[in-house]
Structures are given as structure tokens and as C-alpha cells.
Amino acid sequence: MAFSKRQHLQWNIDALQIAFKLEKEKRNATQGERLLMKQYSGFGGLKFVLNPVETPTDIKQWAEYDRGLFEMTRDLHQVLKENAGNEKQYKRYVDSMRGSVLSAFYTPPEIIHTLSDVFTENGVEIRHFLEPSAGAGAFVDPFADKGIGHVTAYEKDLLTGKVLEQLYPDRDIRIKGFEELPESELGRYDVVASNIPFGTSSVFDLSYSRGQDPARVQAARSIHNYFFLKGTDALRNGGILAFITSQGVLDSPANQPIREALMREHNLISVVRLPNNLFTDHAGTEVGSDLIVLQKNTGKQVLSEMEKDFCRSLETKNNTHTNALVLYTDRVVFNEIIESTDLYGKPYTMFVHNGGVSGIAKDAKEILSEDFRNHLDLNLYKGILPDKPVVQPGMAPAPQPPATGIVTQRMQAPDTPVHSSATGNRASDQLQGNTIITANDAAPQEQVQLSLFDLFGGAPQVSVVAAPVTTTKRKITVKRTVQRRQPGLFDNIPVRAAKPSNHTAASSPKANGIPAGQGDLFSAINVNNDGELEKTKPVEQVTESKATTDPAPYNGEVQAFHKDDCLATENGYVGYLRNINTSKGSAIFHPLPLTPLQKARTEAYIQLRDAYQHLYNNEATLRAEHKAERETLNTLYDAFVKRYGNLNSADNIKVIKTDSAGKEMPYLERVVGGVVHKADIFHRPVSFSTATLATDNPDEALTASLNKYGAVNINYMAGISGMSKEDLKNALHGRIFYNPLEKEYEIAEKWVSGNVVEKAGKVMEYLSSQPDDKEVTQSLKALEEARPRRIEFEELDFNLGERWIPTGIYNRFASHLFDTEVRIHYTENTDDFSIHCDSRNIHITEKYAIKSQSRTYDGIALFKHALVNTTPDITRKETIGDREVKVRDMEAIQMANTKIDEMRKAFTDWLYAQNDEFKQRLTDRYNDTFNCFVRPQYNGSHQDFPGLDRRALGIEDLYPSQKDAVWMIKLNGGAICDHEVGAGKTLIMCTAAQEMKRLGLAHKPMIIGLKANVHEIAETYRKAYPHAKILYPGKEDFTPQKRLRIFGDIKNNDWDCIILTHDQFGMIPQSPELQKEILQAELDSVEENLDALKAQGKEVSRAMLKGVVLRKQNLEVKLKTLEHDIENRKDDVVDFKMMGIDHVFVDESHRFKNLMFNTRHERVAGLGNMAGSQKAMNMLFAIRTIQERTGKDLGATFLSGTTISNSLTELYLLFKYLRPQAMEKQGISCFDAWAAIYARKTTDYEFSVANNIVSKERFRFFIKVPELAQFYSEITDYRTAKDIGIDRPEKNEVLYHIPPTPDQEVFIKKLMEFAKTGNAELLGRPPLSESEEKAKMLIATDYARKMSLDMRMISRKYGDHPDNKASHCAANIAKYYNRFHAQKGTQFVFSDLGTYKPGEWNVYSEIKRKLVQDHGIPAHEIRFIQEAKNEKQRKELIQAVNEGKIRVLFGSTEMLGTGVNAQKRAVAVHHLDIPWRPSDLAQRDGRAIRKGNEIAKFFADNKVDIFIYAVEKSLDSYKFNTLYNKQVFIDQLKTNSLGKRTIDEGAMDEKTGMNFSEYVAILSGNTDLLEKAKLEKQIAGLESERQAFNRAKFSSKYKLEDITATLESTQARLDRMTLDWENLQKRIEKNKDGDILNPVQLTGLPPNADIKQIGAKLNQLSEKARTGGQYEEIGSLYGFTLLVKTEVSENDSTTLERDNRFFVQGEGGIKYTYNNGRMATDAKTASLNFLNALEKIPGIVEQEQKKIAGLQKDLPVLQEVVNGAWKKENALAELKTELAAVDRKIQLSIKPESEGKTTDQVEEQTPVSDNSEPTVYVKGAHLPRSVL
User: Fold this and answer.
1) Are 63 and 1098 a contacting pair, CB within 8 Å?
2) Cα 398 to Cα 299: distance, rounded to the nearest angstrom
3) What H or E segment, with its residue span, contains residue 1333?
4) What is the mean pLDDT of each run of 10 residues along the chain (1828 residues)?
5) Does pTM surpass 0.70?
6) How far apart are CA 812 and CA 800, in angstroms?
7) Burial class (CB in 10 A: 0-12, 13-18, 19+), 466
8) Which residue(s) pair with 1506 in the sheet?
9) What is d(CA 1350, CA 1370) in angstroms, rounded to the nearest whole number?
10) Contact criterion met (CB below 8 Å) for 1712 and 1734
């Protein structure tokens, strides 16, 4: 039976109603109710339940084929609302349905019964059964019927769980996720069986995600893998797991580690591949699935061949993967194979079984039964192990993880749970009456905090093992689950297992309640020469034997740093705390029996720890110095050290390791030069600054005032400078201004900055009442002089949907556009518009509407898309093979986009058509919002930088630009230093950090830089400030063991600066609270996107919904992890917030641009990864921590020469980091709001190879660029080398053209053919996979890049050629090598392709070979940057280049393009390839175009030649020109020197390559062909648009014809009604009282019949008349004919019902009725029936007149549409004319080659040996030689 949506939806509604009812009535279900609930099937295949149903008009958002289910869906939502206590609970129910839509595809019962029967038939008796993803309990019944004692079922879905709970009230039903399985139930269950979920959603289980087992870490990121490993954890040894899952578990190569982990401790019983149509009838979906059955065997040592195949995946002929076991064995249930294609036209094999579910179950049982007979170990299941291990021939040893523990355990009965750790620890093997010996030769894998019992226990701490059993010939590694409360700081001593002894179990430490395997810190336990534990005589015996050991409530004050297992004192006893509740201030104190020495040491330690914690916390909280507490800390420390030694001594470390609150105590000491020093906290506060200043410099007095008070405090300044207030004002004239609004002085950089327009208006109001205030007058003058030039209305660019424009304007425009009232509302927190229109007209339903196969998008729906600048994703159904699938309806999408563009253009036209007052008000609003900001002119020339050692740096002074940048950073608390490469950003960071520290503007500044140049930063800092206290940990100092100490050092010491690499910075834990806040905001945004998707209705594909839901689930897991970290926070975890870092200098900040953001524009190219990187998120967390502390923007300084590396959209991410508050004031809350103001999206349509329309969207145009540039420059110091006046060489670019080699010529043709056909075999590679098909042009572009560089990059079958890039480059290198031999001139060679790899062919090594063999250059003078493996080697390499010992240095952009100051002798740079981003090219050139290039300055006319090698007919030249043009726009924006308000970025990006026709044209080498391809692309897009326009026009034409015909018929009908009314008025009779008479004449009655007779006759006719469906005349009234008609209707399937209706007909043939033609039983009322019908004529006439008026109003609109011309016809004609001209040019250029060409002429075109001919020197524009 086919899947019925209606039936399944009704079953679900019924089941939920019953479940809710039972829950309210608190009773069990009846048998009938249970049967109804068991039909519940979830909402898989019922996506429409998520469509909007709030109002009846929402049905318009539904697909036509689902509209019949609209009312039922409304009923469903009504059931949910009625049973939800509030809106929040209802939302949870809807979220539950959403998850169910994506995952609820329930297993047919026949399959489950088959599985259950096989279990029974093979003697598997089940006591404990677990269903981890129960759904409605499909697996529960078949197994429960077999007499299972205990059934546990998990179901995470809320609604499904309610049904499940009511279906099985006697079972253990848990409505929660499987990850919440208690640890106590691990190793408990006999059988775990389910149809598990599948997907890449993460699971919150820290024992997996933070465990040491890589397979479990991987499993935590994929829910299906997690279920397998967690399910096996739940099994006891011998237990059986049976899961139905997607084929991806077995087939995916990525899941191989999971399969291997399963086979390590499980026997494979069976694998059955089920047919694709298994779920078709039951769940409405076709999907491949597998049934996998495993048996747990923790003692397993070998893998069978079958199990090896289970682990492997093989690639098929269709470039897909399948499991080797499935491929090699007959394990597929099918009787028909369908060779079809998938959605992308790729070959696809479907296995189908036409015997229905019962037939599938029958065949599956045959495979299962055979597998159970052959592979089930029933003895293992029952707990009966063989006397000897069975080793099958040909079996390989099973992979085993290293042993990590020493445990003894005895055999337990099969029904006794054997617990195994959730982190992958194995339960013990079970041996009847015997124990197992385990050895551990490896060092512990993790550090372990010693137990308090280990510290103070009285029993010997040795592992006790039983004698070996002679029949057991193998040793089985077993791990014991140990509760590790927190990791220790130091490694334990590696120990080996003790030799076998005869100790009894009763004497073991475990028997005494003490964990085994850990040493007593105060017992004398030694390690002998064999690495084994020896017990010697204890140092002291416990003397306080009478001490109480009973736990009691703790009477002391519970501190914030107290945690479970922390040491404490109480009533003279020493002990530890448990059950701490900080909110209630309660804890349980556990006293410990100690010797006097133990007690004294521990008490002294506790006092010292508490003193430290109190001092730090009080100073950090109150920001005030606590001298008395510091003195106490010093006293306690000195006394402790005097008696017990340093804290870091071995004995004291043992004590500290037992204290959960003491992990920071070792950091109170620092070792410098082998001498132990106290940390800075012993001498001064480390959590805030105590610096004071005394100066006679008014500028420094001003800076100090800003630091202390955040404002200009004249009194304070006078106090520290010794100058009078008036002298200060005079000295600072023009530097400070009086602000009458705040009644205080402000610095010029603050006063004459920001929104000066708003300030000036308020100051003028003040002066109107205080006109004689001279100070305020000067302040106003300064504001007016700084006021930006007003931008007039005519200069403005507008986008429909800009958030700053009032919605009232959008209301007016929409009402004008649609000629009816439209109301629009904008919601800021969701960044969404809602539109309300109570009436529809022809403008909405026709003119601005488009019709697709599935639905009609009316004008209102498209207008909403226009407001948010999106295009609806319209689909249509298409039959592929015998399957009906949904595909994108590109023609409808293109038409919708045309209508949207029309609306957006109409908005601009409408604005220009408004009156001058409107324009003036809108212009004022724009200028007040955007054109009101002023960037201060920072002048830092007054700074003298105390302590700066200029001599050591080798400089006379800083550049003025550097001083200005430092001053800007000091005043603003951060900035963007956008300085060109070589402008001295390193010194800016160092001096700014030291100055901020000196002045107290920052307490602990931090500099982070690339690993490649962070050493140089540290060296520069040390040279600049030799006495500065800086922390610069090397790589070896940042190991996991030492990292915690570094963090502690940062927190507890008063550093001038901390210098870390980007990677080291990423290792700093961020504040969980702040992370939670930011991620919660992102989660809220995702949930809002889900709501927006719901509002779109049916056009939301399942893939779109799944993507957003998946992101939501993964964010929820991250949030749960953070909440866990917050709740279980340990004081020893030092995070960024606790370190006290209050300013971060980020060198090469563009490395952090991949920041997370949300947008609706998911199909727009070039936006990057919306999910972002963890690296960027860590930076955002850190900056938000600082901003939260200061309450201001910035808080960081970004330094980079390439802040905008590729697109202006990167500006938004910069602002998100540094200017969140400023953007919020502009109404920008998200990327879409920013893009609505500054960007314009373009959509290009083109035809694919298959002649289908494809679209490509990108933000190509940027508007309001001057205001965007001003917003950027307000916080940016942008300087070029020319601005700074750096004495550096000029760049002489050489675009060096190389003819293609013969091999390249052939391959270029293959590339062109590949671009057209997608036949990858042309390139010598396998056919494209499904994912590769989508990226075909990107693959083509990549091959073209490799081909251009060297054919051997494609395949080693190609050989060398004298005309390839390597040969030309080598020749040029040799030329410059010889030219500058005397000066030892150096050269850089860049390539990101073919980089150096030892032992492999690569371009680097090839050019080196040519240089050595062909040109005689010594090999040691040619080096690769990749050869430097560490900082020391890198530094030596760079030094050798500067000394001229190395003359040629190769490298990539990543490794050589940044942080290399080797410019001293550079004379040339060679670019073998061209990078994607303009910034990368600039970074490369900057290695030589840099200050300090002495050889270029004195011997090369201060110029460096930059060679860009371009193979003709390749993408090289085109790519370079594109980069050049893009860089020009970026530079103009940064300098705010654009001559126009709109710029075009172009349409090239690295993610999708380019259009294949352009690609082919470029490879042809003919620029005319490129121009032709571009024109043809534009023409094709326009012709497609015209075709869609004409279709819409024809549709409107038919509509016009219908309306015209309707208007004519309605007018004729009106004329007849009017005539009838006129005739009635003429004939009507009245009595003397003026009442109208009713002279009804009925056939068969006399003319003077009375009312009763007439009524009786009419009632008789009503009952008896039989007209056979015809109108029968029965009388007359005022000349109008009276009629009766008998109508027959079917009452039910067996009876017919007759009904007589009465009419009165006029001369025009129109029939009128009253009471719908039915006769009243009352005689008088019946007699008036016809007269009443005639009296309705005026009302009907009025209705017809309104209808005619409406039709007449719509008629001109439709006539305009039908008669209207396509507006782009002229543009199309012009393009066609231009194309014809290009075609003529191409035809004229195609001539046969001249046979008379001489040999000399040919030779002139052949490059000569010195390669001088191909070289083309170009300045300014960069063009291929063919167009020069």
C-alpha cells in the first residue's frame, strides 16, 4: 500500500490526543486506545506540518498538492496549543515536530519481528533490553513479548516520547537523549537494538568529546557513530547489539576508525543490506539501510577475514564507496536491480524488492539465521568461556589499545552488570572462578590528581593480583574505571605490575575502600630496578588513632574557591570537603587521621593557600591594594618555606596535588637562573595597575587624566604638573575644548570627532541662552569647521529595505506600487519585515506575480523578498528514471528576480518623484545617521617614549606615522593599523604596548603574531625596552604539561607585555560565561532563521531545513558543554578573563577574518564560511571580554597591511570585532542589515553544458562608499609607504609572457573540451564524482594553474622542456645572479603550487637543478624556506640571505610572504604562479620592496624587478589583471579617494572559478573570443529573461481576454436587471396606505385567491412538484413569470433527496430567488416569497456595478502589461550589434598561415637563449601582449 500523508497525519493526531488525554486523566490506556496510539508514525515525510497555519490565508504559502491537508494540519497545531501550558511549551512541541520531520522514518514491524524471532530461535534469552532510539516503541513489543524482565527505552523527541510513555507505562521509558544513560548502567544490558538516527549532528557527552580515544572523539561529532559506540558501552560482555542504520556507517571511508573500534572488542554476527524500498510504504521515503548485529567480546584477540572486510571501504566504478564485506558477499536483500541516475545525472544503482515488506523480511531472515548459526557465540552470551582460547586459522590479531591500568576482577554472573567506562575503558573478561593478570608497561597517558584516600589511607598501596591460571595462555588488558575528579599537574612515576603474589582479595586496598594503584604520598613506596612497586617501612605511624573519622557539617565559611576534595581545617582537625553548595554555604567536612608532621605541614599549606586566594580575589574585585593581607601572605609563605622548603619541592608538590583548590600554588614561585623568586603578587597587585605619574609635560598630564578619570580633569592635571589651570588651558589651546552639555573639558580628538552634527545642534541650543560664553563659542566653531560636506539627495544611492529608512516610507511606497493599503513592520531582533495587506488586486495577483508549477508568488510575497534582497528558491517536480524528484525551477526563479529588481528600481524612481520637503527630510536623516562622523587628525609628535632605546634599534626616532598611530591607540584604546608592508608595524606594537602600560592605559597588554615572525617581535621589544618585563614562551614552553604554568604566570605576575603566537593564543581557555552569551545569541539567530523558513512555507526544501536544524543542534551541544564547564568550574582553570589581559595587539589580523555570521544570502558567492573558524571565535571571545570590562568599542589593535584582502564584505567582520556598539547605533544588528545599506547583489544567469539555466549571485556593487570608507577610517590609521616616506625601492613589474610548449598546447585543448563536456578522463583522471561535478569549473581552473606552472604537476609522464616556466625562470635568475654577483644580490622565488617536499619531484627542486647544472650556481647558495624546521633555523636562514651566503630563496606565500626581513640584498622577485588575493601578491613583493634594501638602492637605481610569469593561452594574465583592478578599488576605498559613490568589484572568485565559455575563450589565447564569450553570456541571460517576460505577457493576455468577456457579460446582465427593475417600478400597485400589493396569480387558483390559498398551493408544490430538473411555470406576478424546479441530490450511498426551489423570472431571462429558492411553511410568508425576491434587485444591481467598476479598474493595468514592451530590448539590441562587430573582427583575423614565411621570420618569433624576446615591460595597466 502506498504511503498516505493524510492517513499518517490523522493517525498522529489521534495518537497525540489520546496521549495528552491520558496524561491529564492520570490513567492507563484501554486496549482500543493502545491500538490507536500504536499507529503513531512520527512526522517523517510530512514536512508540510511545519508550514504556516496561523490564519486561513496562510494556505497560499502551501504547495498545491498539500493544500488538501491544510485544515488537518491546523487541527494538529490546535491540539498542541490546547495541551501546551504556554507559548514556550507550544514552541517546544513545534521544535519536536521539526526534528521528527527530518528523522522519523519508522521501521516496518515485520523486520523487527524477524529479528526478534531469530534471537529466540537461537536460544538468546534476554533479561535486560535497551532501545536507545525508541520512536513509538516498534522494537519494544516484539522483544518484550519474549518475556524480557526489564526494558529500558530512550526517546529524545518530546511528542513521540509522550506517546511512548502512555503505550508502555510498565516499562522504563525515558524522554531524553541516549547520551544521558547513567554510568552505572554501562555494561548492564544483554541486548541493545534499534533503528538509530543518522547525521552529522554532535552529541553532548564529554566522556567522548574530551576523551583520549580518537574513535570516540570522532563519534561525538556524528550521532550514528556515537550510538554504535555508546550502545556497545551499554552491553555486558557477550551481549548483542542489533542496529538498523544508514548505509553510510559501513560505506563511508571516514567511518573506518569507528568500524575498527567496534571490531576490537566485538564479534561480527551479521550484516544485511536492506533494499531501497523498505521504508517506502511505511515512511514514504526511499533510502538504503543496513542491519548490523555485533556480539561484545572484550577478550577478543583476532579478526576474521569477514571482520577485516567489515572495516574496509572500496571505491566503485561510479566513484562511490561501498563496504568490502557487502561487495564480496551475498548480503543484499533484493530481487531487482535498477541502474538509474541520481539528482545530478550520475550513475546510481538501486536494489529493490518487489515482494513487499513481508518478502523482504523473509529473505532477510534467511541471511540472519545462517549468520547466527555460524557466528553467534552462545557460550559467551551465557558467560561460559572455553577452557582454551580458540584461534581460527588465517586470523590476524585484533588491534588493541595500549594497557593503562592494573586491575583484578572476578567473574560475574551474566545478569550482573559489568561496568565499563564511557570513555572507552573495557570491562574485565569474565573467567569462572579465576582472575586475570594484566600488565602495564606504558607510562600513564594522562596526569592524575592523587586521591585524598591515597594521601591519608592506612593500608599499603600495592596492586594485588592472583596467581596466573595455567589454562589461560594469553594476557588480556583490562582497565578499571577510576573516578578522576580533575587532572593533575605533574606526571606520576611510571610503574609496572607487581610480580604475582598470593595476597587475598580481602587484603587489597580496594577491599579497604582505597583505590588501588596509587601511592600514599607520606608512605615510603619505592620503585625497584624492574620498575615494580616496593613497600618499605613508613616514615611515621599514625599516632592520632583516636581522632574521629566521622564526616560532619562544615562550620567554617564556604569560599568561592572551595571545591569537592579540597583540603580544609575544622576544630583542630585537617580534612577535606565534599558536597559543597556555595549558594547555601554548606559542605561536609571529612576529617583525616594524620601524624603530627603531616598535620602541621598541611595546616601551614592551607593557611598559605587561603591567604593567597583571599588577597587575589579581594584585589581583583575591589580594585584596591590590600597591604595587610599581602603582608600576611608574605609572612605565611616565609614561615612555610623556612620549615618545609619551597612550594615546588617534591614533598610539597605531593601535598598540593591532593588539593583540588591548590593547582595555582606552584605558580607563586618563579625560577630565574636557577634561583627561586616570589611571584609579583607578593610585592604588588597583579590584577590592576597602581601606577602614578608626576610630570611637567602638559600633554602627558592630559594623558594621565584620561587614564585616571576617562576625561579631562583640570584640577588633577594641575596637581601632577605643577602648572596653573589657566596655564594648562593656554598650553593645550586647540587640544582641549569645553563641552557645555557635559560641563567638562574634552580633548580635541574626542570633541571634534564622532557625530559632530548632533553635537553642534545641541551646542547651538546652549548658546541661545548663553551667548557670551567664549569657551563654548570656540567649541562650536571647532565642530562647524570639522563638519562633513552635506550629501544632497541627488547624490544618494538607495536600496529598498535599508533599515534606517522609516517603515512609514515603505508603507507609502508599497501602497503606491500595489494601489491598495499595505502595512509593513520591521522587527529589529529578528531583522525581518512583516507585510499586511487586507485586499488583493490585479497589481498583486498579476502584474507583480509569477506562477510556477507548485505555487503562485503574488506581489506581496515578492515584495518581502525585495525588502531583504533575496530571491525565492522555487522548485518544480521532474521525473528522473521512474522517480519524481524536486529540482530548482530556474526559469521561475529568474522571472521572480526580474520582478524583484523591478520593485527595487521602482522604489528609487518613486523617491525621486516625491516633493522637495520629503527629499529634504530623508536627506537630513541620512546625513544625521551616516554622514556625521569625523575622523580626528592624530598628532603624536609630542611623545618622547621614556625608556625607548633608539640606539639599540638603530634608529634616530620613530616615523611620524608610527608616532601618530601610537597616539591614536593610546587615546582610543585600540585601532586598526592598516600600514603597508615594511612600514614598521612591529615597532608600533611594542611602543604602544609599553606606553599603555607606562601610563596605566592598559595593565597587561598582549601581542600575538604569526609563528614565523613572533620571535622578531620579541627581539624588537627587548631591544626597544631592555628593562621591560615581557613574557615570551617558546614552543617548548607551551607543551600541555607546561602550559598551565604559563597561564598561571600570566595571571599572577605584573608583565609589561605578553607575546604569543596565534596558535598559542588559541590555546588560552576563554571565559565560558562569555562564550555562552555569544553562542546563545548565535543560537537565537538560527532559531529566528528557522521561524523565517517556516513562514516561507512549502518552498523550504528538506535539505535547507536540515542544514539549519543541524546547525542549531550543534550549537546546542556547544552550549551544553559550556554550561557544564561553568557548573563544574575549577579554580585552577585560568581563562583569558582571569588573566587580566586588557588589550590585545593582533599582528597580521587578517588571519582572523573567518568569523561566524548569519545571513539569508546562503547562495551568494564570496561570503566565506558562515560557520566561521574556532580560531576567529576565540579572538571574538577575547575582544568581547575586554569590551565588556571597559564598556567601549575596540579594546584591541589590529595590524595588517591587508585588512581587506579580497572583498569589501570583509569590512563587516572587522566592524563586528571592533565596533559592535557603533554599528548598533546605525541600526545594524547583523550582516544582512549591513549589506542592505552598503551592498547591491547581482544575479547572473547563464546556460550550463546541459543547456539549463544556472544562476550565480554575489555582492558585486557597493554603494555609499564614501560613508563606508569614513566609518572604516574613523578607527583606522592607513598609510602607504609613500605616505610614510620610507626609503625603499620602487617596484618595476614585468609581465613575462611565455609561449605554451607543445604538450601545453595539446593539454589546453583537452581542458577546453573538459570545460564543455565534463569528461574528466580527458585529463587522465577518473570521472567526476557527484560533489566534483558541482565544482567542475573550479577543477578546470586548478588544472589550468598546474598546467601553466609545469606539465609535470599534472603527471610525471610529461618531461622537461626548454620553454616551460621553470626554464625561463631559471634563466632569469641566472641573469640577475651574474649581474649582481659582485654585490651578492639575492632573489626570491614564490610559488604556492609545487612547493618543496623532500624526496618528491617539485618545481622548487627542478629550478634548483637547472640553476646548478645548466647555469653553474653553487647548490648551497640556493635554499628553500621549508628547510627551516624551527625558529632558530629560520632565523639563521634569513641572516644568511642578508649576508649574501644564500643568493636564491624559494618559498610559498604562507611561509615566505610574511615575517621575513631578508631584503638587504634583494634585486628581483619571481612569481611562478599568481595567488587568488591581491593582498597575497603585495605580501610577496614586500619581501624585497622594503626599507633596508641596500643593493637595490646603491646598485640598481633603487628599483626591484618583479617578474610575473604568464603562459600565453593560460589564465595567468587574466587572473593578474583581475587582481590589479580589485586592488585599485580597495586602495581607493582606504584612502577615501573614490571619485564616485558606487564601485564594481567584478565577478571572479576562488570558490567557483569562472563561466566555462569565458574559460575556453581565455585558453584559446584570443581576447576577442573572451569578449565574445562575455557578450554571448549577457545576451543569453537577457534572451532568457525576455522569454520569461513574454510567457508572463501571454498569461496576462489570457487574463485580459477573460476579464473583457466577464465585463461584457456582467454589463449585459446589469442592463437586464435594470430593465427588470424599471418594469417592476412601472407595474407595481399599492393600496391606499401606500403598501405594495402582492397580486400573485397561480395556475389552478382563481385570480382573487386569498393568502391562505396561495400559501397552501405553494407548500403543496414544494412537497409534490416533480419537474425532472426543468423549470416549470406556475404563475405570474406584475408580468414576471413564476417558476419551480426540482433538484435531486444524493443523501448517502443508498437514498436520494429531492428539493423544490422557486424563482421569479423577468424579461431578460434572469431568475431571482428569496431564501435560496426555498418556500416557507407559513402561508403569508410563502405568498411573499416572489415579491421579496424582486425587491432584492437594487442590491444585486449595486453588487454588479461594483464588480464592473473593479473590472474596469483592472482592465488598464492588464492592458498595460499586455501592450507593454520589454524594457531591456534596446540593451539586448546593442549587445547583439556589439557581438556582430566582434564576430566580424574574429572572422577577419582568421587567415590561413602564409606558406611563404621565411625561416628567419619564424626564428624571430622563437625565444632566443637569453629569453629577452618574450619579456614585456608594462607599467600601470597590466594586459596580455596580444592587446598591447
Assistant:
1) yes
2) 10
3) helix 1330-1334
4) 72 86 85 83 73 75 75 85 79 74 68 87 89 82 74 85 83 86 89 83 78 85 86 92 87 88 91 79 64 91 88 78 82 74 55 80 88 90 66 44 33 36 35 31 36 39 35 35 35 34 36 36 37 39 50 89 89 90 84 90 94 87 86 94 92 89 86 84 79 71 67 81 82 86 81 80 88 87 84 82 87 90 78 81 84 80 86 76 68 81 86 87 84 77 80 85 88 84 83 88 90 86 85 79 81 88 83 63 58 50 54 63 54 73 90 72 60 77 85 87 69 84 76 76 51 57 74 80 76 85 84 74 74 65 80 85 91 94 93 81 90 93 89 89 94 81 92 80 84 88 90 70 63 58 52 44 50 65 67 68 82 87 86 84 85 87 85 89 83 67 87 88 87 87 85 76 73 75 60 38 33 34 31
5) no
6) 13
7) middle
8) 1293, 1469
9) 13
10) yes
Sorted by sequence, the CB contacts under 8 Å of residue 905 that are 6+ apart come out as none
Residue matched to cell numbers 564480496:
328
Give the side-chain half-sphere CA count within 13 A for 701: 25
Contact criterion met (CB below 8 Å) for 861 and 872: yes
| 316-354: burial string, b at 16+ Cβ within 10 Å, e else | eebbbbbbbbbbeeebbbbeeeeeeebeeebebebbbbe
What number of residues does the chain have?
1828
The closest of 34, 156, 61, 167 to 100, measured between CA atoms, is 156
942 contacts: CB under 8 Å, gap ≥ 6 = 697, 699
Torsion, Cα 573 457 422 139, to 10 degrees, reads -90
**Could you tell me the sign of the dihedral formed by the alpha carbons of 892, 895, 901, 904, in that order?**
negative
Q: How many angstroms separate the CA atoms of 1366 and 1363, rounded?
A: 8
Axis-axis angle for helices 1431-1443, 1014-1024 (nearest 10): 70
Sign of CA dihedral 1518, 1520, 1525, 1529: positive
DSSP state of 686: S
Yes or no: say if 244 and 111 are a contact pair by the CB < 8 Å rule: yes
Return d(Cα 262, Cα 268) in angstroms, integer: 9
Q: State in Å, rounded, how far the first CA of the chain is from the last one.
A: 72
Decide: helix, strand or coil at residue 1632: coil
CA–CA distance, 1529 with 1543 (Å, rounded to integer): 7
- The dihedral built from the CA positions of residue 263, 268, 273 and 279, taken in this order, carries a sign that is negative
CA 1729 to chain centre: 72
- SS3 assignment, position 547: coil
> Contact at 8 Å (CB) between 1029 and 1056?
yes
Q: Give the strand pairing for 347-352 and 336-341.
A: antiparallel
Orientation angle between helical segments 1403-1413 and 1365-1379, nearest 10 degrees: 50
CA distance 1105 to 1096: 11
Number of Cα atoms under 13 Å in the Cβ half of residue 1283: 18
Strand (E) or helix (H) holding 897: helix 890-912
H or E segment and range at residue 1120: helix 1102-1127
Closest C-alpha among 111, 123, 107 to residue 41: 107
Q: Which residues of 1748-1783 are buried (b: 16+ CB within 10 A; e: fewer)?
A: beebeebeebbeebbeeebeeeeebeebeeebeebe
Nearest to 1403 by CA among 1476, 1331, 1351, 1453: 1351
Residue 1307: C-alpha distances to residues 58, 1344, 1786 (Å) = 57, 9, 23
**Look-up of cell digits 618574450:** 1814
